[in-house]
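Pasting as-is:
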Amino acid sequence: MPGITLTLSGAPDAALASQLSHELTELTARVLDKQPSQTMVIVGFVDPSLWFIDSKSLENLGRNSFRLEITITDETTTVAQKRRYQRESYDLLSERVGNVHPHSNVHIIDVRATAYGYGGVPQAEKLWG
């Protein structure tokens, strides 16, 4: 059950959000071996004047940025898969967003199977009964 939260600098753009939702779901399935039907994506936008790196706004820096956070069940992916996902998702988002600050980032968050779930059922019960 990957949960993806993507935050982008800039004005809300429904077409871009939809495109990235599709592309990130596909990438997550292909690289991390996750089910698209169980992949949730939330996309948010932050005004560049309110996003700071080293106390300077992206607006003042003249750059764009993104932060991708994905929660996955601990020990369901390998280090190699995570490394590949880091690179491919960073490259994808850098290309789509353009002019990104090098501190744009990807966080893969491993969560214990007993600590989260969906439909009111912990992930551990779905995995191991």
